[in-house]
Amino acid sequence: MTFTEWTLAVGNGTVPGKSFPSNQSADWIEIPESLLLPFTEDPIRTICSTVYPDFAQRYHNVSYLTERSIITPTNKNVTEINTHMLALIPGMPRTYFSGDSLHTDASDPDRLEAEYPTEFLNSLSFNGCPEHQIDLKVFSPIMLLRNLNPSIGLCNGTRLMVLYLGHYVIKGMIMGGTFNGRTVAIPRIVLSINDYRWPFVLKRRQFPVRLCYAMTINKSQGQTLLNVGVYLPKPVFSHGQLFVAVSRVRTADGLRFLIVNEDAIPSNYTRNIVYQEAFVNFQNPSS
Q: What predicted TM-score, i.e. pTM, was given to this entire model?
């Protein structure tokens, strides 16, 4: 089976699966040995050094950064990898803190502000939104988290290499796509975050970016890369995620997995969640 055929089989859910005594889901598939990295005591260091070889000499090379990334299921793992990689760049980071406030239609906003002080608002994290604290260095890659100006390439998901870290703007060079190589400026913006868990709308004034030596599988959709490391400290958790990860590259030479399984499940197996009814509904949209 060729790499292209295997990738399509992953997407279609036709790679033979099995279950294990500790996990009865019969969707655990074997990853080809040629794609596997060995488990080590420090898996983050292993996946980073594999995807970013010779980093100390090449961290400022935009082509080098453009063609590679680590992909992992959760934001927690993305943050761990990005923190590790940023520390490898010489110099101290510049830290940007957000300005957070709450807005509510409640009749007693003063009570809410007392219950949810600024320090609590600062601690909140939301998918697709910048953190309260962002640490960056010149030459680090970042991803834009909002559509700012699509006509010049500033779209949600655009990757850039940082060129300048100012108080009011971040300047970066777009990596990849139609606007590859264009230098742009990113301002702070005010984001309105409405989460059902909280009885208020959070207003966060921050640069709409995050580091992107690594990105979540969901954020990687639409990216085409030459070198991808798929880091799975836990299996994927939703339909089609494994296919999204493996289809970011066109050849097997550019893909490596590092799998960390629990419950005595072999480290050459991972889950491939594919709901066949999704294909039935797609083929028969009226049903």
A: 0.91
